[in-house]
Write a structure and sequence with these properties.
The protein is built from 10 helices and 8 strands. It has about 300 residues and is of the alpha/beta class. The protein has a single domain, classed as Ureohydrolase domain (Arginase, Chain A).
Amino acid sequence: MAFNKLLIVECDLGGFKQGASQGGAAVVLQLKNKPKLLNIIKTPNCILRKSSTPQAHYLDEINQCIESLSKEVSDFLQENGDEKLIVFSGDHSTACGTLAGVKNAYPNKRIGAIWIDAHADINSPYTSDSGNMHGMPVAAAMGFDHKEIAINKLNNITYSLWESTKSICNKAIHPDDFVYIGIRDLDKIEWDIIDQHNIKYYSVEDVKLAGGANIAQQTLDYLSLCDFIYISFDIDSLDSSLVPGTGMPADNGLSLDCVNSLFDTLLRSKKIKALEVVEVNPLLDSNNKTTKTIASLLDNFM
């Protein structure tokens, strides 16, 4: 179950608040059992929302990050096939790079993904009303454009960069091999996309009623045909009262007991190859409450 190797990704270009780039290091400082740090992947310091691609802010810089991240993850898994990797990232925009890395390490295997999050992150530059890339990694990883429901027209630069994003991700995941847990703060377009592709999801209420362990086992059963599995844990899946230090807190979220039970069952699976933790923002935190909470949760599995 233990994670003994670590990557840190310092990126907050995908959201609308600075500080998430510091989240990984902040949580690691609070861990009692610290995995070995393999590398820190950095992105430039930019003035938020001043990018030249308003339908996909800072996509050029984020593409460079996810390409580097994908290679780091792929190289690690190819060289250390029996080990599990934990990735502490800033905002969620770069998670498609981790998922692409898992796929690149095992190109002939079927990859599953478990997305524990308050948000679906399945918009594209064609459908996003904010242009924030942390709301698009699932679409990138699945190779989705959603042109048939587009609300935006992309300029040539954004179009070319988004094509590069999809190329880097190389359709790392198929909708049939994907499960959401805890989603609740979605726009209508996202719910429509989930319905259109029949993507499996469990609501917070589902988890509360059945218990984290049962939902985790149901998720593993649903992904039983997958050879390997990646887990993305956005801390805003937790109730906002527990994690003030995150960019998009959402009420009526998962409890710590629920998430602990989810992890306790999920991480026992030998199919799990990578766990990614995202959206810790120390600049929004209150007396390190969030970093301490997340570190305490994760220490059970280090």
